[in-house]
Amino acid sequence: MDIIEAIHTRRSIGRVKEDPIAKEQIETILEAGIWAPNHRLTQPWRFFVMSGDGRNRLGDAYARIALEAAQEPDSEENVKKAESARQKAFRSPVVIGVGVEPSDAKGVVELEEYGAVFAAIQNMLLATHALGLGAVWRTGDPCFHPLMNESFGLRPQDKMLGFIFLGVPDLQPQGRRESAASKTEWIE
Q1: Could you tell me which of 177, 162, 180 has the C-alpha nearest to residue 120?
Q2: Smaller CB count within 10 Å for the chain: N or C?
């Protein structure tokens, strides 16, 4: 598969089988991530690979965040809410958390650090697709919550930028894009 074909055919795959994923495939995906462009070679990414019981860390973080504002965390309703949030961590056999640790070196622009990690995530999604696996990149308010940072040992200035849920696809990908022409202004 060439790169243009990979870009055009990659889609988010939100439903995967519980089949195990080989460590070598996961390492290939991580290696693709670190080749993303990054200003001043700061390499601001941090990866957390979770499988098996290792997904409990993410599940516990989701549950803690779901209950953070609860007046009665032990109520039946809130216990169900916490368990529902916890189960999100088990939607795939492997979850890769991707965080940014911005450099505080002089001349480093923080926004460029985020851009580098977003580029790393795209590389990882393309590598996943090229390996015949499926993945979806999930974010949302819990991802960016300070308790998520705490759960993964990230500093206050760091940020979890998403979770790549990956596995063997269990659905046919859908979706298409508007043409580039519809989103482009030529200035000559």
Answers
A1: 162
A2: C
Amino acid at 54: G
| pTM > 0.90 | yes
Residue 78 CB burial class (10 angstroms; 0-12, 13-18, ≥19):
middle
* Calpha distance 21→2 (Å, rounded): 23
First to last CA, the chain: 34
What does the DSSP 8-state code read for residue 169? Answer: B
pLDDT tens digit sequence for 133-164 = 999 999 999 999 999 999 999 999 999 999 99
Residue 36 near residue 119 (C-beta atoms within 8 A): yes
How many CB atoms within 10 Å of residue 68? 12
Contact 93, 55 (CB under 8 A): no
